[in-house]
Amino acid sequence: MSGAIATDRVVKALEALYLGNENRDRKEAHEFLLKFQGTAAAWEVSVALLGKQSMQERYFGANTLYQKVKAQWADLNQEMRERLGKIINENLARMSKSEISIVTERLACAFVYISMHTSKDPMPLMQHVLKPKAHNPSYVLSVLAVVPAQLQSLNLAYTTTSKIYKSVKSVALHVLRYISQFLKTSNISPKLVRLAISSLASWLHAGVSLPMLVRMELLNVLFKLTPSMPEPILDLLGESVEELQNPSSQASVQSVVQVAGFLAKLGKLFHAREKRCEVRAERNKE
Q: CA 190 → CA 18, 47, 89, 197, 223, distances in Å?
């Protein structure tokens, strides 16, 4: 079966799965797609699907690449690994200019997985991603958001894992300062703000140790953003603040008071937002 014919069959199966009216047709399409993901042809077809208009088709392509990279990594030769890394990175850079979605998230996961397993060290990846003005912010943030989780999923020897986490700690401060500086820029779309805070949360949840001054800088940046944030972003922000509010044992009393003051202000803002939502809900009932 040629690549074009295989791609056409997959597209039709996806249409049946998402748009079909018959349960039997959807079940058959689902079973066909699962089986197809395990074939050699799925590599080429998945790459082709990344250029499609349909979100479902792009997502199937991106997710299949990620799942196949993870499942068949040991079977891939060096040439194939490098080729896949280049293709996935190029598509991520292209797509992230116009969309931030589950598709770019899957591509970012695949790219980070390949990079981590190729070098066994996050430094080359981080140097590539954080290179000044080399990439658009949505590309950088898409990659940064998935790095901690991908690191935790690595199945490596303890000594290698320890080395990796030492490297991560050495770049974590640069990562968080990049996110902080980005959040200070004006006219950021809500999607990019959410992606930036998601990236911040993922690094904070990874147990990154921060100096108090950096904590305060991040807290102040986040607080200034809160008045214009939609509800879902505020929820995500709350998770980040929980990670930031635990001061180190060496923090000064003044720093602790500043953090407490910030959290009190943030709590009032959340409360005010909830009240506005309640008022709107009552008006809608009327």
A: 28, 29, 24, 11, 15
> 247-260: buried (b, 16+ CB within 10 Å) or exposed (e) per residue?
beeebeeebeebbe
Over residues 163-195, the pLDDT tens digits come to 655 666 667 778 888 888 888 887 788 788 888
pLDDT tens digits, one per residue of 28-37? 999 999 999 9
Sequence-distant (6+) residues with CB within 8 A of 50 are 58, 61, 62, 91, 95, 103, 107
Contacts of 271 (CB under 8 A, 6+ apart): none
* Phi, psi of 208, deg, nearest 5: -70, 130
Are the C-beta atoms of residues 164 and 151 closer than 8 Å to each other?
Answer: yes
